[in-house]
Amino acid sequence: MIQAILFDLDETLILDHPVSLHTLRSCAFYAASWYSLDIPRLIQDAEEVAVRLWKASPVFDYTQRIGHSAGEGLWARYEVQTHPALKTLHDWAPSFRAAVWNETLARQNIYDEALCEALAHRYFSERRLYPRYPEIDELLKALSGYKLGIVTNGVPDLQRDKLEGFGLKDRFQATAVSGELDIGKPQRGIFDHICRALDVEPSVCVMVGDNPERDVAGAAAAGMKSVWVERGFKAKDPNHPADLEVSNLLQMLPWLEAL
Q1: CATH topology for 4-15+131-258?
Q2: I need a surface site. Which of 6, 122, 224, 225 has the fewest CB within 10 A?
């Protein structure tokens, strides 16, 4: 019998990439109020430049291990420093953010340091939105008989901000954040941690997420069942088949009942 349902956070419970794109558009339109710009190109270039510069981070290997991305580096505060690398990111991130806009604008022959700083600040401030997917309220109500947990990769303060911002953290009995534990999905340790927190065995857990490698494969290696939710941002991976595939999380309810 299944006793606990574990959820990924970004792109499973809350929208992530669409909000980042919305914020990039806001910044691009702001920049275009000062200069004549190709806005779609500006947005695409900003995403590409951020990823490339992020790979030059002095602690890139650490960010890979805990699952912290370039896009998140544009707005993470890094005030909770559970690892020395987070102090490094705290000190390095401001120059990274300005450099992203500096190079992005330079590709359209715009050189304005004040505007780059303004865009970095604008993204940092405006990105703090945490809309949840439309089925989440109904889903959590239907799952009231289960123990519920969140297993999420990322830095401590950013993931905790998301939990606070999406307004339902009190519906979950435990949360495992990779940056707090120094171990991230798909490594088994983070799954073992949430099981201990919920006082359950892996065999009675279902892990729900959008990432085949981190959520599905990680759950399988930990001895859990898995549900893959297709949100349009992570492709299905035949090498990591889930026990159930859905496009809306409410679709998993009959399957859970049958289990």
Answers
A1: Rossmann fold (3.40.50)
A2: 122
